[in-house]
Amino acid sequence: MPKVVSRKFNQKTERPSKEKKDEKAAASASAASAASRAFGPLFNKDLGQHILKNPLVAQGIVDKAYLRPTDTVLEIGPGTGNLTVKILEKCKKVVAVEMDPRLAAELQKRVHGTPDQKKLEIMIGDFMKAKLPYFDVCISNTPYQISSVLVFKLLEHRPVFRSSVLMFQREFALRLVAKPGDSLYCRLSVNVQLFAKVEHIMKVGKNNFRPPPQVESSVVRMEPRNPPPPVDFKEWDGLMRILFVRKNKTLSANFKTDSVMEMLETNYKTYCATHDMMMEDQGPGSVDQGRNG
């Protein structure tokens, strides 16, 4: 008899494993539904979708862009439009480049039936592959994984635009504005500052985003130099790669590596040949002597 009672008790309290799995799946679905209600459209972190939710920060970014009523603004990654609607208040037109069609649809709904609808053009696609239209100012809550390529695509854009106000991961932003002697001073710092004036505008905590990222953010203002310096960027960047390949070595030590010396010798011979110049007779072993000098 006790065994029967025990058996009946077990039947009532122990649920089949399939039932447990179904309950777990239902709980997971409920949590996902709650997240969807909390965050609106489910954001794709793989695309760096962290929507700026603080209206004061958004207004601060727009204020620092110093927009004019006649400006065309390029916005990269508008998301659901929290920043976009504030930009539209200050300018003539906004061209918003959004990779996610779902968020583009949300943005379109947001301005539908308002005076701003005619001022907004939405380009759906990858910013890095897009042919950019004319614009005066660029504003972006940048997906952090494309920060570097975004900066240089903007700096290569012609005609030269007036300025940009860009949100980046804090460390990346500090590298952009770092000066010689700073611990974060690097090839990125040199390259960007050659072609633009860069200043740090504000720090933005992770709790100002939805969903919050794992890192802190900063906003920088970048003004391209106009006219641009008469420098071939690929050649310049090649030089910077040599200089910053080993930060703890002196410049002369970096230049005296075998690979660099061979490259310099080859380039010098090519330069002389293309300009009908006679190479100086350096004598046998001159390159090796230079390496040891």
Automatic annotation (TrEMBL):
Start-end of Basic residues biased regions: 1-10
Keywords for the protein's UniProt record, in alphabetical order: Methyltransferase, RNA-binding, rRNA processing, S-adenosyl-L-methionine, Transferase
Binding site for S-adenosyl-L-methionine: 50, 52, 77, 98, 126, 141
InterPro entries linked to this entry: KsgA/Erm, rRNA_Ade_Mease_Trfase_CS, rRNA_Ade_methylase_Trfase_N, rRNA_adenine_dimethylase, SAM-dependent_MTases_sf
Entry annotated with the keyword Thylakoid: no
Ribosomal RNA adenine methylase transferase N-terminal domain segment(s): 57-226
NCBIfam families: ksgA
Protein name, UniProt field: rRNA adenine N(6)-methyltransferase
